[in-house]
Design brief:
Two copies of one chain form a homodimer.
Chain A: E1 7-13, E2 20-26, E3 29-33, E4 35-38, H1 50-56, E5 61-63, H2 65-70, H3 74-79, H4 83-87, E6 93-95, H5 99-105, E7 110-112, E8 115-119, E9 126-129, H6 131-141, E10 145-147, H7 159-177, E11 186-191, H8 197-209, E12 214-217, H9 226-239, E13 245-248, H10 254-263, E14 267-270, H11 272-278, E15 281-284, E16 287-290, H12 310-314, H13 317-325, H14 329-356, H15 359-365
Parallel strand pairs in A: 4-14, 5-6, 10-11, 11-12, 12-13, 13-14
Antiparallel strand pairs in A: 1-2, 2-3, 7-8, 8-9, 15-16
Helix pairs in contact in A: 6-7, 7-8, 8-9, 9-10, 11-14, 13-14, 14-15
Chain lengths: ~375, ~375
């Protein structure tokens, strides 16, 4: 434990909400929170170079243990000197446990004693993940913030099964924490309990007893009604002491992030911004701009006015539409650049407003903001 | 003609070969020759930004009139303020006439009086190109170096048809040159005549009478034996006066370029470097490196040793192989970066060696260089 380089401290608390500014120290540098963490599934944030991410202001990226374990294999990454060196990213990396992919991508997983068997989505080969093993894999990659193996359940799971999965997750939590050793990076516990208040509360309390470096809010924003998402988020956050980092896994829409920030969440990740970019959709303050729309054929405006991103400073909607329709790689690059810039810039604005005690202003900016609105 | 901004001058002649160093002035700046011109078919050099091309040292790119005419349409490009503004490239642009695509991509072209009818490869719609029209299209895009409409023939065309096509090309040449007006960019004549010495000679002489700004060597490197390519190249080049720019259309392999340079050719373009990059192939001094090869799975060397490109300075073969196999966009970006850097760097080396009177050294470097060799 003496080797631990992970530290978190709250540096400012909002008077008008539960939002806070924080600072995370990791083996690969400092992160200012609240922060948005782009997803780099296969050792690359799709379409982007590390330099471009840094220019945009990205502070931390996420790597997917499941995908990297299957391809290129953790041995390749380890021999490269770790994930940072392999992919030429020098800043912090958060890795998930692989559990979510095992349970969601595979029709054929099987929970066995102390772990889960599954088949590769690539070639159907058989594999086994245990709580200890996924920690080992993440350590070998040199992760700055590791996740424990958990069993997520679907939002319509009944009370009995949800409880069973929660208990198993708690068992796995104990095994995980015992596997960390003197590793310098952090390990986060994941709070499950599905849609049930009392189970989430119980899970939170028992996770807290294990004293993880931080806590992830799991099993939310996976298809349940949005009001319930934030009702349960607020309750879960309130269980986690202020001195612990709070991470909402998989939440990535601007309105949702602002809500969760005001409840005291520090870290967010989501594929949304990068995935919709590759499908020709730009995030703007007016809604989602679908570049395929015919109306943009001779529109020489940037994707979004008053945007300082590389894409908006240099290219028009007409040009990006042309690239997209012509299947040009540059379309994905430019749209991803804009969307990530939007998210990173939003987080910067959020941090600024928290400091000024004016978070409500940014909330107002998104009042009536219909995320699903297409322009 | 007073408005003409195109100028070419030979600034150094090699004592040991017919190679020369030249300087081209265009409305969008200066080009040092011999030069390699990457292909930006659809208003983008695939996978690259203009800034990246500049960083590599690219001096001029090529745009395809046929593709841009069909999509997004010349009206869109014109309303954007021309091709340079549309695609955010500030340096010179060479455009082809579209003729090659009409004759090679369409099974259904029809030569009619003073032009050619063809169907769109996108939607089958009917279109018509005349010598005047393709000049008009190139002028509207703001091309720095335009090409005339010509009729290329396949290398196995008989004498009669080849002569017919040559005569038609000469007729079109006259119509083309009369369409230039006071446009500041250049117009190049294209020398055809297939595989027949006397026809190529006749074509050259009659093209020269029209006094084009420069001359393209057409109808070569399209499938004929390689020895014949260079035999005819030499003869054609020798017909073109020294004070005129010479452009070998579609030649892009390093060995071939060095040969043609030593015969006095100034400009080259080819999709090869960028296309094979997207197919996972890197150009190296040892041959073509196929990144899909299993041997590169745990190879942490750069694509090519002693290469200063962004890709080789920061990434390993193992990582690029992983990206390529995972279908990641970054694979195309990195391989394209390396291959274009290789080509641009090769041209820089060639210019340096011409200046030093040591072009043979670079020729020697490629002696026994088997382009088709896979490593």
């Amino acid at each position: 434990m003496e080797n631990k380089k992970f530290k978190f401290k709250v540096i400012h608390e909002d008077k008008n909400s539960d939002a806070r500014l924080g600072e995370i120290i990791t083996p690969h540098g400092k992160i200012n929170t609240p922060v948005f963490c782009p997803v780099g599934t296969r050792a690359t944030v799709k379409a982007m170079t590390p330099e471009e991410l840094r220019d945009i202001g990205v502070q931390i990226i996420l790597g997917n243990t499941y995908h990297l374990y299957l391809r290129p294999g953790i041995d390749v990454i380890e021999r490269a000197g770790g994930l940072h060196k392999f992919m030429h990213w020098k800043e912090p990396i958060l890795t998930d446990s692989g559990g979510y992919q095992v349970f969601s991508l595979n029709q054929t997983f099987k929970i066995v004693k102390d772990g889960v068997e599954f088949k590769s989505i690539i070639d159907g080969s058989k594999h086994f993940f245990s709580p200890q093993k996924v920690i080992e894999l993440q350590k070998r990659m040199g992760s700055d913030i590791m996740m424990m193996l958990d069993e997520p359940v679907s939002p319509d799971s009944d009370y009995g099964y949800t409880k069973l999965a929660m208990i198993r997750t708690l068992d796995w939590a104990r095994m995980s924490i015992n596997s960390v050793g003197d590793y310098p990076g952090a390990l986060f516990g994941i709070i499950q309990g599905g849609m049930y208040d009392d189970l989430r509360k119980e899970c939170s309390q028992r996770m807290l007893e294990l004293n993880f470096d931080g806590y992830s809010i799991g099993g939310l924003s996976i298809g349940e009604p949005r009001e319930l998402t934030f009702e349960l988020t607020e309750k879960t956050v309130n269980e986690i002491p202020k001195e612990k980092t709070r991470y909402f896994m998989g939440l990535g829409d601007p309105e949702g992030i602002i809500k969760a920030v005001s409840m005291g969440v520090d870290i967010f990740d989501c594929v949304l911004a990068t995935r919709i970019a590759r499908n020709g959709v730009a995030i703007t303050y007016e809604g989602k701009l679908n570049i395929k729309n015919f109306r943009y054929k001779i529109d020489f405006n940037p994707l979004m006015h008053d945007c300082n991103c590389y894409c908006c400073k240099n290219y028009s909607r007409a040009y990006i539409r042309h690239l997209y329709i012509s299947n040009e790689i540059l379309a994905s690059r430019l749209l991803t650049t804009h969307n990530l810039h939007f998210m990173v810039n939003l987080m910067g604005e959020i941090r600024k407003k928290i400091k000024e005690g004016k978070l409500s202003e940014i909330k107002k900016k998104f009042d009536g903001y219909v995320w699903k609105k297409n322009i």
